[in-house]
Amino acid sequence: MTFQSLDTSSPSRPVEVPPGAMILRRGVAGAGEIIRRFGLLLGFLVFWQIGSTFGWINPTVFPPLDKILAATWTGVVGGALLDDIAISLQRSGLAFAAAVTLGIPMGLFMGQIRAVEQALDPILQFFRQTSALALYPVFILLLGLGEASKVFVIFWATLFPILLATIGGVKEVDRKLIEMAATFGASRGTIFRRVVLPASVPSIFVGLRLSATTALLLLIAAEMIGANKGLGFQVMNAQYNFQIPQMFAAILLLAILGLSANAALVTLQRRLCRWADLNH
């Protein structure tokens, strides 16, 4: 009789996980991530819906979410709010584009030339600390109650976050990188294109995201004074007529516009700054 020895030193085979179990694990992990990120928000919305429906909170002031969503759907699909959305986007978009066009080049210039920054910084800080809403009556006196004053007050408020973030981004560039590029014979233009500008992009995008939020905030205030179109006007008009679901529908659309603008900027930043850590 012969005996075969068992080779216990050979590695054991990995346990194969069925495809169904893998899908289940990924689903559970994904659900857990959603709960961690949005659990508090979802809980708040559920409480709003249930509390308003059963009268725990005043349904006149805080109508149920289904009524707000129904008013939003009716306003968008029926076309009643489409003109207001378009006008609000036009106002905030023009102001934001003008702030980007002026703020980024000016910030890059001031960040590199210290004498210019020192000369302009006092007046820049003075106007930055002056509320754009406080200056809005001045803009109305100069430009009238038309579109120009509304666009300009939004532009005024959105300019400073972009400008200051760009200046800060340029000043925070590692000087050793600039010195190394100069040591290898790079010209000032090449150093700016290859070192200063790429290193400043993350800070510039922080300013862009802050300015996009500011544009929507000032848009609401601008459209509440002397306007007959726009989402900000619809918020005030619905409140005056006590159409609370329609008021919250306009507020919801403004929030969606803000989230969309921020998501678009984050996506663009990730593509332009793949080397940076963008976990926030």
TrEMBL record:
Residues 85-265 form the ABC transmembrane type-1 domain. This is ABC transporter permease. It is found in: Cell membrane. Belongs to the binding-protein-dependent transport system permease family. SUPFAM superfamilies: MetI-like (SSF161098). Probably part of an ABC transporter complex. Probably responsible for the translocation of the substrate across the membrane. It comes from the Bacteria. It is a multi-pass membrane protein. GO terms for cellular component: plasma membrane. One of its GO terms (biological process) is alkanesulfonate transmembrane transport. The chain crosses the membrane at residues 38-57, 93-111, 123-145, 151-170, 203-227, 247-268.
